[in-house]
Amino acid sequence: MPSCIVRPDTPHPTNQPARLARTLAACLTLFTIATAPTHAQCVIGDYATSGAGGVAVVGSTTYIADAGNNNGRRLAIFDTSNPESPAFLGAWLAEGGGFVNDVVVVGDTAFIASRGSYVDGLSIVDVSDPTAPVKIGGYSIPGSPRRLTVVNNIAYVAAGLYGDLQIIDVSNPAAPLLLGVQDTYWAMDVAVADNIAYVADRGGGLKIIDVNDPASPFLLGSIWTLDAAYGVAVVGSIAYVATDLNGGLVTLDVSDPTSPQILGSYDTPHYAVDVVVEGSLAYVADSFTGLLAIDVSDPTSLSLEYRYDTPGSAKASVLADPYAYVADGNNGLQII
């Protein structure tokens, strides 16, 4: 078994020179996700960034929300058609050194959640030429925008403390228009399905919001998620919430959005900050623990399949078969 794949019943690999050498250099990590986790491979390539917090993949192009200082706080764009040798294509630098926290790409347009005194909370960048991305629009958002999603030309921005859930029409990227705002405590992440927004609201747990009329959103239900909620994904009638130290991954039945119910949980070793779901596995970015693959086939009884060790602090991941692309904090963009 490759040394960077850790079974639940094996110790963390600590003294493996080859792995250590790759660890010191790596920044973007693409993990192989074969149908059976035992087929996973280790690092196959890397490219250094200094503060990867968000990631998006479209075809053979990878976009990293890079909040580090070494190369400027930026949207960094890579050609990953050959995962063994990712190539830097170009970057958009946030105005005034603002933090770039998350990115969603639709077609040739990147939507960026950013924070800072001189940068729009929502920045919209034309990436049709990835070697020369150009900002084409933006919207000033209060608070500290963390994550966003874009559905049917509407951007839903989880805007952190004092920022609430911001709902913005981006059908004209050059002139985004605020549609509505829903009060939250400390919105960290948002998922939208069937005209319902699910907000990971940090100390407010999970908030479930009706956005059928985006100009008049309203709260349907909420629930404490065992600890502070940082990331959320929804598949069918199940919500998956990445929470702080005491909660880990929490599964909830949201079939009745007015009365969500906790189904199960898996207490991860560190801070769970992001989750994506593929089939019967939930991939959890668990900060310094790396990326965890958790079996959620029975949402009432979760179990760890594998831990994919990353050298930095895993902040987010995107699945694009047969790889997972991981934004690994100060170790940036790595390839396993």
Secondary structure layout plus pairing:
Elements: E1 5-6, H1 17-25, E2 29-32, E3 45-47, E4 52-58, E5 61-66, E6 74-79, E7 87-93, E8 99-106, E9 109-115, E10 122-126, E11 134-139, E12 147-151, E13 154-158, E14 160-161, E15 165-169, E16 177-182, E17 186-187, E18 189-193, E19 196-200, E20 206-210, E21 218-223, E22 229-235, E23 238-243, E24 249-253, E25 261-266, E26 274-278, E27 281-285, E28 291-295, E29 303-308, E30 316-320, E31 323-327, E32 333-335
DSSP strand tally: 32
- Count helical runs: 1
Structural class: mainly beta
Portion in helices: under 10%
- Portion of residues in beta strands equals over 45%
**Segments where pLDDT lies below 50 for 5+ residues?**
9-28, 33-41
> Please, what is the average pLDDT?
86
Task: Please give the largest β-sheet.
Answer: 5 strands, antiparallel
Overall geometry comes to globular
Strand order of the largest sheet: 1-29-28-27-26
What is the gyration radius calculated from CA atoms?
A: 19 Å
